[in-house]
Amino acid sequence: MYSDSNIKRSWVEVNLRKLIENLDAYKAELNNKTQIMAVVKADAYGHGAQVISNTLANLRGLNLFAVSNIEEAIELRMSGITGEILILGYTPIVLLNEVEKYNLTQTLLSEEYAEMVYGSGINVKCQFAIDTGMNRIGLDSSNIDKCIKIIKKYSDLLYLNGVFTHLCVADEPKIQSCEFTRLQIQRFNTVVDKISDLNLKYIHYMNSAGGLFHSGGGIVRLGIVLYGLKPDYKNVLPKKIQPVLAWKTVIAMIKTVEEGNTVGYGRIYQTTKRTRIATLPTGYADGYRRELSNVGYVLIKGKRANIVGRICMDQMMVDVTDIEGVSVGDEVILIGEDSGEHITADDMARMIGTIGYEIVCGISKRVPRKYSD
Ligand SMILES: *Cc1c(COP(=O)(O)O)cnc(C)c1O
Question: Rounded to two decimals, what is the model's pTM?
Fold first, then answer.
């Protein structure tokens, strides 16, 4: 492995100052009793969970974290995180000894799962997921008596320290969506009221959008907005919130292609004039989405260069005809900003009908992450 950080092909730059500014700006929107649980699943949405979590713990004293699975939880614990680590999803029962060993907290997905956890004889910390309308995981809150009975039963048998639900349309400004979110919160509160005697430490229902648009105090499980992206592209975020991650590559080769020639696989792009083409050493194996073929753009010297032809596995071609003074080795911005021009993961997502979450999570492992503060 080359460890020289000057050797650059395709890399991500994560700005930790912006991360902290986002956290502060987000918290400024909420009442000051609100606590933050940092959601750092999927390697902190592609930003690198170890560095992100330790930065939040060291600079802002964060001590609540959420991940999606046991591997992510152990990685976090091993990296020095001493606070609570909640596993939001399924853990195979045979791995519960690891949950105990690393002092993690397991979500109870259902009554059946709770029974299996009890059956394992391993007394791990756990929290019940409550389903208030998303129909993904959790105890059905519409059957309220049964729901309460199950929670109380397992709070006697297991080390239950919380309950939570998940909002499924908190990011949508439509009236029907706001009404549904209010209904979900109301259902959750009904459950919470009836188990108040258990004095559970962690009771939470908000994601990023929930905290911004439907805050009721308590704990926010903060994910996407921490990274400076939008839950939904229609959302308006507080002004100071900005993307934490930039993705860069370089120009590997430049050539002139005469009018009437095609570029790349499938010959889907044809030059209509004499065109300067730059080849970039980043492709879909790096997580650069192939749907951006002939659609997306990159930034070179603060100007847009359109992608021409299909994105290849490891390379792509862009049109630099109108950009002066480009040469091999010049830096290219795939996600980020330069001289007032910008392209965010949200912009990119919108062009191909997905969400910023999927863009940043999709940047491959082979793209190194570099950190600055
Ligand atoms: C991913 C996730 C979150 C964070 O959602 P954002 O929209 O990124 O803030 C919160 N809670 C649960 C259960 C999740 O799975």
Answer: 0.97
